[in-house]
Amino acid sequence: MMTSPVIGVLALQGDVREHLTALAVADAVARPVRRPEELAEVDGLVLPGGESTTISKLANLFGMAGPLRERIGAGMPVYGTCAGMIMLAEKILDPRSGQETFGGIDMIVRRNAFGRQNESFEAAVEVAGVEGAAVEGVFIRAPWVESVGARVEVLAEHGGHIVAVRQGNALATSFHPELTGDHRVHALFTEMVRTAG
Predict the structure, then answer these.
(1) Of 18, 19, 82, 186, which is the active-site residue?
(2) 158 an active-site residue?
(3) The pLDDT of residue 119 is above 90
(4) The pTM is what?
């Protein structure tokens, strides 16, 4: 079993630096990933927040969309926050035209479900698999999960909506744990990568 897994953060858009910090605290070797050859060198990958339509376009522009779909499909551990959750969905309820996802989790998500930027909020979320107190979740134009397939494990809900899920080696949260200084969700993901390796 690997000791310190190499975990990349897709560095096309979003709060890359905060994820790199959280992963390092969780005892991973963290590095930004922008190109297919960098993707080939990591044991797992974080898809940060940002704007899902922009991430989709940039992934195509940088030649990353195909390789990402392949590695995720082959079982590479992956963790998506906010827009990253949208990118892991098999289906988006209200996609922008031409918007594609990488897939990986059998779920349908709704973009901006919790409201616009000015309706952002923080909330304590009980996440299955994360020990101790509730996780402080930062919700910024956050999606929620409308429905999941049979193989998807629901890890957390907020206000009656699914906000954290796991399917095999794929993990996703509607919220941003990297913005709070609480790195337990990143520790959970690091452990997933370690055991997958």
Answers:
(1) 82
(2) no
(3) no
(4) 0.96
